Amino acid sequence: MAAVDPKKSKLLLVGDSDQLPSVGAGNVLNELITCGKVPVTRLDLVYRQGAGSIIPKNAESINNGNSKLSYNQEFQFIRADEPDFCFDTVVAQYIFEINNNGIENCCILCPMKSRGQNCVNEYNKCIQATINPPAPNKPEITLKSTIFRIGDRVMQTKNSENVSNGETGFIVEIKKDEDDN
Fold first, then answer.
1. Are 80 and 89 in contact (CB under 8 A)?
2. Tell me: the pLDDT tens digits for 106-139?
3. Of 72, 47, 45, nearest to 58 (Cα)?
4. Are 31 and 13 in contact (CB under 8 A)?
5. Could you give the CA distance from residue 117 to residue 122 in angstroms, rounded to a whole number?
6. Element (H, E) at 55
């Protein structure tokens, strides 16, 4: 805070208090919100879902500790007691959804990137093999044991100058450097 002169500067923090807690040390945003010593403004309009969506209502119920939720085509609960059944069910549901709603309108959210059967890496391999398998005339490249192929849906995982973390797109071209094998 020494770099911020309170007479010449204002500090504005923007975030979502309902996000998952920090993985590493600290919970800065939540602690600032709950301390009662800084002004807080809460935005209460939801733009991600359409009017009449039950998702914001269910999110509010969950945040208030209420487990009585509403279900419809938009918000479903499928019980899966075994990891294999869970994995197969998620993959089948994802393929069903992309066939009905388009791949750009569907995603799988998982808590683990690389640990266990039901992690991001395992879902990505299975989905790629199912909906975008290799073909003789389809270029691909392997980077750090991950195969990237023309037509793959990808997500940026770090902010850069031109692309923000979380943005998605499709691989449309693969160019290899001369020193790539």
1. yes
2. 989 888 888 888 899 999 999 999 999 999 999 9
3. 72
4. no
5. 6
6. helix 55-63
